Every structure is written in structure tokens, then in C-alpha cells.
Amino acid sequence: MENITARRYENGEPKLRRFHQAQWDEPILFELSTPGQRGLLLPAVEDEIRAVAGNVVSTLPKTLQRVTPPMLPEIAQPQVVRHYLRLSQENLGFDFNVDVGQGTCTMKYSPKINDQLAGSKQMAALHPLQPEETTQGILEIYYSFEQILKEISGMDRFSLQPGAGSAAIYAAASIIRAYHAERGEAIQRREIITTIFSHPSDAACAKVAGFDVITLYPDEDGYPDLNALKAAVSERTAALMIANPEDTGIFNPRIVEWVHVVHEAGGLCFYDQANANGILGITRARDAGFDLCHFNLHKTFSTPHGCGGPGAGALGVTDVLAPLLPTPVVARDGERYTLDWNRPRSIGKLRAFYGVAGAVLKAYAWVMSLGAEGLLETSKTAVLNNNYLLKRMREIPGLTAPYAKGRHRIEQVRYSWEELCKETGVLSEDIGLRAADFGVHYWTSHHPFVVAEPCTLEPTESFSKMDLDEYAAIMRYVAEEARTDPETIRTAPHNSTVHRTDGAVLDDPSQWAITWRAYLKKRDQVGE
Amino acid sequence: MSASVGDNLMRRVGLIVNPVAGLGGRVGLKGSDGRDIQKKALELGAVPRAVDRTIEALKRLAPIAAQLTLLTYPGDMGELAARRAGFDPTVIGTITTEGTTAEDTCVAARDMVALGVDLLLFAGGDGTACDLYQAIGEDAVVLGIPAGVKVHSAAYAIGPTVAGDLALGYLTGKTTGTREAEVLDVDEQALRRDVVSTRFYGVLRVPDDARRIQGAKAGSVESDASTAAAIARHIVSQMDDDSLYIVGPGTTTRSIFSELGIEKGLLSVDVVYRGELLASDVSEAQLIALLDERAAKIVVTPIGGQGYLFGRGNQQISPDVLRLVGVENVIAIATPGKLNRLIVRPLLVDTGDDEIDRRLAGYIRVVCGPDDARVVRVVSVAGDGADTASKSNLESG
Amino acid sequence: MNAKRPLVYPYIPNSVPDVRQAMLAEIGVNSVDELYEDIPKNLRLGRLLDLPEPMLSEVELARHVGGILSKNRTCEDFSSFLGAGCYDHHVPAVCDEINQRSEFLTAYAGEPYDDHGRFQALFEYQSMMGELLDMDVVNVPTYDGLQASATAVRMAVRITGRKRILVAKTIHPSVLSKMRDYCGPSIDVEMLDADLETGQLDLTRLKDALSTDIAAVYFENPSYLGALETHGDEISALVHSVGAVCIVGVDPISLGVIAPPANYGADIVCGDIQSLGIHMQFGGGHAGFIGTRDEVKYVMEYPSRLFGLAPTSVPGEYGFGDVAYERTSFAHREEGKEFVGTASALWGVTAGVYLALMGPKGMEELGVGIMQRARYLMMELDKIDGVKAPLFAAPHFKEFAVSFEGTGKTVSEINDSLFSQRIFGGKDISKEFPEFGACALYCVTEKHSQADLDALVDALRKAVS
Q: Which has the least CB within 10 A, B68, B219, C28, C126?
């Protein structure tokens, strides 16, 4: 009989899988509409109610009555289910692929048990304004999780209200602004310092909060440049907002000096810990002297990414800044948990109610399933995986890992395909699209590129050695293909759901279509 | 990707190959301009790469070959490469049989522009880009296929196939914008005497290579032109009534003048006072005379692919001028795109005066937007600037 | 250090000792500690984190967390009339089915090829919301309605170049708090009084307050206090007469029966989609939308992603991409386009499923049914001595303010009494709006049966007597 397992190897190395993504050629929902079909029926209003209420629509002035029904599609239930399930098949969630190629996103396994717990009625059917005696369970989770984050970071107080990482970063900037305003230094301190390899939101959120942003470039070896920082601080410095390790996976060994320099100038220090996955239990924000820090619960703490949310952010601060946190916070009074709304110095509301409670629950459960040793194992394995993959990737001709010569990385690496590009003309983006033909994601870097032809890979602890070998094999294969058959790469993807998009219409106001109705209008105007 | 010229009109592409570009490097000679050097290189066994590189690039245009009219010069100057790439070019002009010179490049370029081309492709090195600029300036959109020894000029694509793809994109209308590529060249004669000296010639227009960003994770990207305008608005809004503003050459600094509604040459140093032009295209002597006892600020932008802040193209802002104005009154501006594109970071200064260079070295804030500054290292080319510089007093203004 | 055998974790495949060893050997180091070389010794924690003992088995974890959650009582255990920004509408089973699919749940930021499904699902969400709002542009969801409102204001400020906005006093206090923080010191927020009788915007006050340095006027319809604004036409006309932007916060689930704000002159419409098929989750199920006309000056101001149709290299095939990715290059304003990051995309997909199931008929029946139930309850409550329902002389949708001033009791006392009868009474708004005295905000949805409503009436009668 055929040895199907042996077939998967060639000279001891795994062969690439013959992947093809589902391709349903599924119409837009509106194209499936059949007048009269219903997807859901509603409970009928009781006769007596209707009699008493009378004609409610006539209580509205004509201008407020909906005259033309919304042109929603009319589809029966099985067809709705089928449509969305087909779309789901055309989507490559983490659960489906060796999702190493979404660097900085920290793609890791979201344990199903946590999803189930968060989906239970005791969580899902809670209204946020219920009397506190009925919500002691979820309030306890909030409180307990806050204590966990305090220990992990060394900070004194946390808010779990931010809707995600950028929201937390924005809140930090707002707190920094309020802090200096209370000291009468709001006008004077209008600058926030960040680095080019921190997340773009560090700069963007600071600007939204009204600050000027000073961005520092690294030194030639890719490490944050302390001398540049010293040149940048002044009496106008409100704060430092940086990620560490940065998006290149490099840890700043002089971080304590950085904090010192900024404190000396009278500024605060915020630690963007979106990249915390490699350092849990290894090093802490407070120990480096930071005044604020944040975590992404949908990254480090395993809550699912949800296509781009809902995620959740946790913002930690020192006691000095605690009164400025968004309102309310969860407090404990003996055995009772309570929401504290009495916070006159707070920056106010950041997000609806108390944040993404479901994500807080999942994050809590994740930590509780691992404990201190498990968190340490998580980080160490993330770092092990990353450096193992780095070794395999470096073996690929045409690929380099710039910066930090001879040093290891923490939990991710920003590679460069510049050499391959010079040689073959194949761009990093092309390689990413070809990677989709093998059932994996791939990400370049934030724009504009600083590292030429970048590729950022982050193999979290969720991946096995076999997974990493597979990913490296795909990259090696594509690199080789760039030399022998670049055209295939330039016209990729071939095995995905659709082929390469022509994006010109997306920038042309006369052609872009953000809704189906806009598309119809423009199509019918122009003619086919 | 379906490539076609949507409106079915013919596109005219000029092609000029500098067949000796890239000769010198492989056999250890610096640069390859000048007949003697070329001869020596060939004797040493150098193989001309320009033709091969051109063929690689032209092959990328195959999908629209039927809609292309390719104008080129005979033999090594383009015809050879075009035919080998599968095209049937229209050959114009004549060349001598002894080997081509810079003058041939210039004549060819002028001929093609006179006949009208949608895009002028050229293969060569920094020298070729200079020749081209001398001949046609910004009269046509051009794009370089790198074949030279050291190709720093921003008019070149990163490699031949990328050049071909960019040309394809531009000709089929996928890329519509152009950007300004600064043209500099190292003085070859001086270089061989181990004296580095560059000139800033001007800018060539090349297709903008900003790529479509699919699925951008975080926000969007500004184009250089709009950022330059935003920087200019910011600088103008911060100008005070007492200072003279000495504005150096470059594309970004020119935006300041656009904002003020004044014409400015690309290469000149000009002086503004209270929002009006005080003096244009000034020499060092004129600057020193103007500065007599007055407060002033200097606004400069890094020139070219190597990021010279002082010492290339703005020598009028001499060490004496810098002393009079004060090194702390230098305002550096640049778009983030420009900073990221610099081949070599840190920024370089080479005023010729060690003491001034040392004072300039260290770190400088480069204004990159209305609320956006980048701190960049400044290094003196003459000596080492980094570690000896304590905190620089350079302000962003 | 410890005598225990090394633990292998189910979530960490490479925690198997042999595999670790092989990988370390491949890298060329002896231990993982060597990989942390860039972290200075004095920054290393050097001890285990002081965290609770882990529940290593799923059995223990479920028991532990389940045990904590069992201390909660929910709107399934009690009859609830709470609203005020979070609503107990029915969540169709299909909505949960789709948003629990791993393909969607665990996806993130893939390209429009490998994640074509997500792009299409969100494009369809944008499209269905467009129909509901009668607008051609709707964004990929932002964090919640608070953010949508605050961003809408900043968009208007960028578009007009003006720095002052007028805001109706009757908007959700959380929205106001968010706006004040997010719009920061550079934008001036001025409140507009409401007509105390109708709860609607006082048009005379509005006229007086309007000037050419106003960027926008923001009001909600229905307002936080439940009253529907019936003078939308006049308001937007006044706003436009000074060249300002009219921003309306709306409850999308009302738009099957209530006219969308675009029909009475709104330029930017915003709100929250939690009502559309998303469980309440203690306030954790929110997502914000912003809708505008398909005009360049508006499109260019969105900080959020906007997905659009795009052709591919295969004729007849279509894909998706981000519209106007160079948005910032268009505007000649000093401000950047805020920021964008992970927000609430999965809820966008969910709301799309909801709207697909409901269709136009469903939305209309839902809206009418809710209004009928609310009206019934208002009329029945009003019969109770000392109770005035609704407080305002205006039409309402699903929420209304109830005054208990005539009963001599505080809302707190009343709600305590209701609680003992297993009812969550309406939100106590006495402190938020002291001018109305003892007042509560009651919310009715399609889940309330007549029995539920009658039980509330009886319970309230007891509570105030």
C-alpha cells in the first residue's frame, strides 16, 4: 500500500501542502434577496396592548415616519446561514493556519473553554446597570484580574475600560495631559517622545491628545539611541511613550537610563506593552521606573482577535496617577465588590460602561489556567520559538535580519528581503501574497517602511516546532521561486479565494464603493 | 494583473543606455566616466552590465509591447538591448564608433524630448542621471535602470526588474503621480584624488513609487507633496518678525516659498524677511553682508540620497555664516518619506570647518510635520561626530 | 530549583523537554535565559510572579470561573427594564452561530485574499447599515457609540476648520464625558438646553447659540431621555444656515419605523450597534458606526477603515480593499486623522447577520411592536397615583423617562422594592438630571410580554403606595 506519510517528506524535509482556500464565488448578500422571504419572525404584540396603544406610527409627525422601508435583503434563514458560513470558510482564522506571519499581533491560541465561559448566560445576559448585588461575580473577576496585572507589571492600579490597545494608549496620553494640567504645565509641556519602531498608535494617540510628537531613530545597530533621547528632552517634554521590545523584537538594554533621563526633565514614562509576550515574569514595567503601562488582552492575554475586535486594553498606573484613570473603577469593600463612580479627577469616560467584560473574563481564565510558572513558560517558549525561526529564516539566501548583529531577539523579528528584491525584483508584498497560496498569513510592516522590503514574523508559544519548520519551508520555497519563476509570485495569489486585486478604483471617488447602494448608483450611472 | 493601456493609445517610451556604466567597479576603479577609465576597465576585463540590465527591465514591458513605440539610439546606446528584449525600436540619431560619451546621452535625450515621449528610460549610474538632467531638466518623466558602480541617485529604481515594473505601472496608468528625485554627482576627478565633493544639480521627475497598501493595519500614509506643504505651513506660521530666514536649496524648502507665494529656484539660497523675499540666489558674501548685526535663522533640508545637511549644494551657507547666525538657529525640515528613504542615516555635514562641523554634529530635530519631529544623528564627514557631541542645541523652531 | 517534573502545557506545544532541547541546540545556546541577553540582570524579576495557584485542568478551571460567575444574577433571572445605552433585545441564534465560528472569531488582519470572507462580511455590514441609515458611506465599526460620536465631532471640526460645537443637554452623559475628553482642550463644547415640556431641543436657544464659528451641532434621536426629536428638519436647516455640520446620534434598531436622520438633513449619523444581535455582556458588547454621504470631503475624514469593492485580475471576479488609503494626503488641515486599531469588527459581522435575518419587514414590525409595547406601558404607568409617564410630551420609541415626584418616594427606594419582586427597575436619573426630580429611565423591548409589563405595573403600584 501507498505510504501516505512518507509522501509528505522529501529528503527528510517536509514538503509543502497542496493547499487551496475555499472559493465559493459567493454573491454579495443583496444579490441573494428574494422579495417576501423572512429570516426571523417576531413575537406578536398582544391584542390588548395593540388596542390600548392604538396607532403608534401616527403619533409621529410625517417627517419622522419611515416612509420607504430600508432596502435590506430579504432572505430566508437557511440561506443566511449558508451565506455566512461560506464567507467564514473564505477566512483564515488563527485556528486554521500557522499564523506566524502577523507580526506584532501576537497571534496565539484562544482557549475554547474561555470562550464558552464568556458565552454563558451568567455573563452574556448581564446588564451593566443592574444592582451591584447581582453582578458580584463579574465584578470579582474584574478586581481579581486587576490584581494579577498589578503583579505582572508592578503597577499600582489598573483600568480595564479601554476597548483595545490604541484606546489604552490614548487614555494614557489623556492622563499625561491631565497630570501636567493639574500642575499648571499643560502649555509648557507639549511634546511627547517616541521611537520609530514603537507602534504607530504611540505617535497617533499622542497627537490626538494634542501633543507634538518627537520621533527618535535607532542607532546603526537598531537599538534605541539614548543620545538621541538626551537631545530630544527639554522642559517641553510631557512624556516618553515607547514600546519595549520594539516592533523589531529588540529590547532596549538601557531602558532604565531612558526613564531616568525623562524623569529628570519632568516628564512621565509610558510603557506600551503590546509586545509583552516574551517578557511575562521576566521583567516588569514598574521595575524599570515607568509611570504608566498598557497591555493588549487580545494579544498577550489570548482573547480572540475577532476579525479586528472586540479586543480589550488594560491601562496600569502608579498611585500618583490612579485618581486620573477613567471612571468607574472596581473597588473592594470587605467581601463586596463595587463600582466607584466618585472620582472627581478622572479623565472621564473612555468607553461605554466598564470595558469589554467578556475579554476581561477570558484573559482572567487564561492566566488562572497557567499560573506564574505557566506565564513564564509562555514567554520563554515565545522567545525560544522566535529565535529558532530566526535561525531557520537566516538560512534563506536573500533574506536578512537587520540590526542587533550577533544578538538574539525577544519575541518577534523584522526581516528584510531587500537583497532578494535587488536580485529578482520580487517585492516583500508579493512574497506575502504568494504565502497565501500555502495557507498562511504574512505581514510586511507598518507604513512607511523603515526597514526595506520588510517582513515581520512573531511565532508565539502556540506554535510547535513542526509548525515553525513548515513556515520556514514555505518562505524558503518562495524565495527560491523568486529566482526561478518570479512571475508566479508577482501574479499571486493563485490558491486563495480571489486573485490579485486591482486597487485603482479604491482611490477614485467616482468609482469607489463602500456600500452596495453606492456601487449600484455608480455602476448604473456609468453604464456597465 | 491585467496590464494594458486602457485607452488603447500608443505610448512613446524613450530609451537611452550608457553602455559603459558600471564598468569600473568590478575591476576596482572608482566610477567609470571618462574615455580613459573606460578603456582601462575594458582592458582589465570588465564586462558592460548596462545592456543586460536594460534587457531585464524592458522584458517587464512585454505585456504592452503592441502599444509601445520605443525610441532609442543605435547599437549599444539602446537598439541592441531593445531588440534583444524582443522589441522593434524606432532608431534615431547617430553615434561615433569609438565609444559613447556624456554628450551623446545629452543629445539623445534632447532628441527624444523634442519628439515627445511619455517616459524616458535610461540605464546608467549617477553620472548618467546628471547628464540627463543637464540636457532636459524636468521636461520629461524619466526613470533610471541602475547599472552603475555606485548608484545613489534617487532617480533610479532599486533594481532593473523593479524599474521595468514601475515603468509598466506608469505607462498603464496604475501609477499616476510623479515625485522629484534630486540629482547629485560626486566629482569623479576629485574622488580619485580622495577628495569627496558633490554637486546638487537639480531634480528629475520620476514616477512615484508609493505602493498601494492593501489591508493597512494602522491608518494611512501621507504623500510627500502634501506633507511638504504641511511642513511649510507650520514653518511659516512660526516665523517671527525680527529674524531673517535663510532658506537653503531643495524640494522641501521650496514648499516654504510656495506657501509664501514667492518663486524659488531649486538650487539657490534665498532670504526671507517678514514673509517677503529679501534677496534671492545669494552668495556667501551677500549673506554675510545681510546678516550685519541681525537675528537670523537658517532653514535647510537634507539633499539627495545621502542626506547632506550642509556641505552639498548649499555651500553658500558657509562656516562663517553659520557662526554669525548661530548653530542653534538652524531649522532642519524633511518629509518622513524622505528620511526613511535616505540610504545612509545619520545626516552628514561637511562645511570644511572642523569646529563648525563638530558643533553641528550630534543630534538634530528634523521638522516632519506640524506636530511631528524626528531626532536624527548628525555626523561630520571630516571626523567622527557622534560620541564627542554632547546634547546638541539645535532647535526645531 | 524545583523537584517537580517539568510541566507540559496544552497551550504550549514546545514545552515538551526534548523538543526544547532540540530547538536550543539548533539555535546554539544552552538555555532560554541566554536569549534574554539584552535584558540587564538588574531588571530581571528573579522570582516567580506572586499569582494565584493555577487551575491546570479544564475541570478545575471551569469549576473555579463558573463558580464565580454563578454569583451573578442576570436579566434571565429578573425582569429587566434597564436601558440607557445597553439593551436587552433578542439575539437570534444564528448571530451567535456565526460570530462563534473560529474562522471569524480568531481572524485578525489578513489580506483581502486569505481573509476575503471577513472583508465581504464587513462590506455587507457597511451596506446594510447604509440602507438603514439611507447613506452611502458607513465605516468598519469603531469601539462603541461613544467613540463614534466623539470622532464625528472631530470630523466636523476638521471639515469646517471651526473649533466650537453645540451639544444637546439631553444626550447620554457618557457620550458627553467622552466628548469632553476626546475633543480635548482645543474644541469648545457648549450645551444646549432642552424644552422642559417636550424634552426636545429648544429651538430659540439653538438659534441664539448658532454662529459662524460653530463647527457642528450634535443631538440624539431618540435622546438619552427617550423623547424623539420631531423638529429635525428645522434644526438641520438652522445648522446649515451657518455652514455647520449636523450630527445626529441614532439608535439603529429604531430605523425600521422611524425616519433615518439623513432624511431630515443630518450630515453625519452615528451610534452604537449593540442592539443589533449582540448580547449585553455587562456592557462589553458595543460597537460604533459613523455614516455620511459619499462625498470626498467626508470620506477623507474617517479615521476608520472603509472597505470597498475592487475588481481582480480575473474578469468578472471581485475582491475588496481599503478605500482612499491616502486619506490624510487630501485634507489641508493641521490635524491628523486620529488613530485606528483593533476595535469591534466581529460585532459588525454580527450586526450584518442580524439585519440580513430581519430584513425590511422584520425591522418595521420590530419597531412598531416596540413602540406599541412602550406606549402601552406608559399609559398603564401613568394611571398610578403620583406617577407621570412619560415625563415628556413627545413621541417615544423604546425608552421613556418616568417621574415619581408625585409619590414622595425616591427612585432608589422604588427600585429596591421592585428588586425584591425580582424586577430591575429603570435607571435612576435623579442625580444626572436634578431639574426633573425623582426620575427613572424605563426601556421596553420586543422580549417583554404583556405579562411582564403588567407585572411591572403591579409591582410599581405596590412600590409607591
A: C28
